[in-house]
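User: Can you help me understand a structure? I only have the sequence.
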Amino acid sequence: MEIMTTKYKQKCELGACRNTAAYTVRFDRAGIRSRLHLCGKCLKELSRVTAAAVEQVEKEGTCITTNGLPN
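Assistant: Let's start by predicting it. Here is the structure, written out as tokens:
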């Protein structure tokens, strides 16, 4: 997975956000249409929520499977 600055003028794709996307998340081994375009605010919120979820999983001693659900 890679996060890069976007070179296109697109809207953020999260929820009802109407900001212009500044970042693109590119997933490994996925097609060109599997990219996620995010504004800086949504990327920051997504990283905060993801970090909290990983912290919770580590605290419980479980692992995250490939589908993103605790094992």
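Now, to help you interpret it: The beta strands are 2-5, 23-26, 36-38. DSSP finds one helix and three strands in the chain. Let me know which part you'd like to focus on.
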